[in-house]
Amino acid sequence: MPAFQPDRLAEWARGTWTSRPSGALTGFSADSRRIGAGECFVALRTDRRDGHDFLRSAMEAGARAAIVSRADPSVSLPQLVVEDPLAALQAIARAHRLAFGGRVVGISGSCGKTSTKELLALLLGGQEGGVLSTEGNLNNHLGVPLTLTRIDPVRHRFAVVEAGISAEGDMDSLAAMIEPDVAIITLVAEAHLKDLGSLEGVAREKAKLPRAVRAAGMAVFPRQCADLPAFGELGVDRMILEPADVIRPAVPPKDVVYFTVTQREETTAIAIAYGPPPPLVFTLRRVSPGMAQNVALAICSALWLGVSPATIQERIGGWGPAHWRGEVLRDGGRLLYVDCYNANPASMRDALANFRDLASAAGPSLYLLGCMEELGPEAPAYHRGVGRSLTLRPGDLAVLVGSEAASLRDGLLEAGAEPDQVRVISDAAQAAPMVAGWTGSVFVKGSRKYRLETALEGAAAEAAH
């Protein structure tokens, strides 16, 4: 485990110790209930609570020290007094990352960040192979420094760090802390428009991560990003993945890698023109076209970082998306597509296209659609557009939940759905009996807010192979 010396922490955080800790600190936590022995408690103040009120709890749980903005002499815990505990943690994380001799990969994008992160970590060797990666979705101003401070310079060769943003300026501190050797942007799409305003606003914020790539590093992203003005002048080497119907022997531009995707009933084959001909071909469990592009991004990044094609194929063969993040499942004879963690217009269209292809001959389909959050004033139009993109067949049923369910319903009716094929519910749990009793295929996707997994609690689903 990493070891943080108190004097070095005071230097990095520009703080002063009330008393010196008895030894090195082994990590950091902002949750007094989950802090480990020997760790440092970071006393953060939020709208709901003040971490300074939990110093004693942290000490009793095993904390060796705390970072505070005001010392509490009634608690006999060494306290590093700083102006801003969060800024101090971020400064410590950045300094710790700069001292790391391995490679750091930063990943962001409007869709598929977490699955791409987990796949790349697997391709690089996983935990047993010395790879640290972001746990869950700890990808914000607090999660990124907590991830970076988990880097063990003795044990780790790679760190794969996810960076999530929702407002202008969010990426500034994240990119500065990560300072990636490789930056991957999966896609720029209509997400977080409430604060970022437009697709161009999303692109400008996302582009800050590849712009922070170290000298001799690499930025990896799809053609869709490259065509946006924000990605035009990054000042770093770049690898642009461009989909093609057929990979021809013509030499592409030096910064372009062509790839093709072939969908079969149970598998997806991806051919990538990386290096001299012939193209490299990788086969994995069936994924959507959008996810296949993310897989290609992860593969090219792993190749650039020195992983052999044979090793990549060995590791990718049984891989599938993370739990409830675009899984294709089987429940008895039923097909289920489940994504309860993310929804924006681009990811919804991609998932629906993949599901319709998979379920084309599987009888009637049930669509449980949660609304897409943070789309700003154009949210009704985006939801109506998604509804118009889905043509219900006889026997199909759409069940809608969320603040823009009426707009989704309008779009479905405009696409030809009968009124009795569309139902609006107030809570996802109300759909559980419908899902349990449905004999055909089931599609479940929506923003995390709606907890669509509560409709699946009776399903005994297994990953499709």
UniProtKB/TrEMBL annotation:
<dbReference type="InterPro" id="IPR004101">
    <property type="entry name" value="Mur_ligase_C"/>
</dbReference>
<dbReference type="GO" id="GO:0051301">
    <property type="term" value="P:cell division"/>
</dbReference>
<dbReference type="Pfam" id="PF08245">
    <property type="entry name" value="Mur_ligase_M"/>
</dbReference>
<dbReference type="InterPro" id="IPR005863">
    <property type="entry name" value="UDP-N-AcMur_synth"/>
</dbReference>
<keyword id="KW-0132">Cell division</keyword>
<dbReference type="InterPro" id="IPR000713">
    <property type="entry name" value="Mur_ligase_N"/>
</dbReference>
<feature type="domain" description="Mur ligase C-terminal">
    <location>
        <begin position="325"/>
        <end position="447"/>
    </location>
</feature>
<dbReference type="GO" id="GO:0009252">
    <property type="term" value="P:peptidoglycan biosynthetic process"/>
</dbReference>
<dbReference type="InterPro" id="IPR036565">
    <property type="entry name" value="Mur-like_cat_sf"/>
</dbReference>
<dbReference type="InterPro" id="IPR035911">
    <property type="entry name" value="MurE/MurF_N"/>
</dbReference>
<keyword id="KW-0963">Cytoplasm</keyword>
<feature type="domain" description="Mur ligase N-terminal catalytic">
    <location>
        <begin position="27"/>
        <end position="96"/>
    </location>
</feature>
<dbReference type="GO" id="GO:0047480">
    <property type="term" value="F:UDP-N-acetylmuramoyl-tripeptide-D-alanyl-D-alanine ligase activity"/>
</dbReference>
<feature type="domain" description="Mur ligase central">
    <location>
        <begin position="107"/>
        <end position="224"/>
    </location>
</feature>
<keyword id="KW-0961">Cell wall biogenesis/degradation</keyword>
<dbReference type="InterPro" id="IPR051046">
    <property type="entry name" value="MurCDEF_CellWall_CoF430Synth"/>
</dbReference>
<dbReference type="InterPro" id="IPR036615">
    <property type="entry name" value="Mur_ligase_C_dom_sf"/>
</dbReference>
<keyword id="KW-0133">Cell shape</keyword>
<keyword id="KW-0131">Cell cycle</keyword>
<protein>
    <recommendedName>
        <fullName>UDP-MurNAc-pentapeptide synthetase</fullName>
    </recommendedName>
</protein>
<keyword id="KW-0547">Nucleotide-binding</keyword>
<keyword id="KW-0436">Ligase</keyword>
<dbReference type="Pfam" id="PF02875">
    <property type="entry name" value="Mur_ligase_C"/>
</dbReference>
<dbReference type="Pfam" id="PF01225">
    <property type="entry name" value="Mur_ligase"/>
</dbReference>
<dbReference type="GO" id="GO:0071555">
    <property type="term" value="P:cell wall organization"/>
</dbReference>
<dbReference type="InterPro" id="IPR013221">
    <property type="entry name" value="Mur_ligase_cen"/>
</dbReference>
<dbReference type="GO" id="GO:0008360">
    <property type="term" value="P:regulation of cell shape"/>
</dbReference>
<dbReference type="GO" id="GO:0005524">
    <property type="term" value="F:ATP binding"/>
</dbReference>
<keyword id="KW-0067">ATP-binding</keyword>
<keyword id="KW-0573">Peptidoglycan synthesis</keyword>
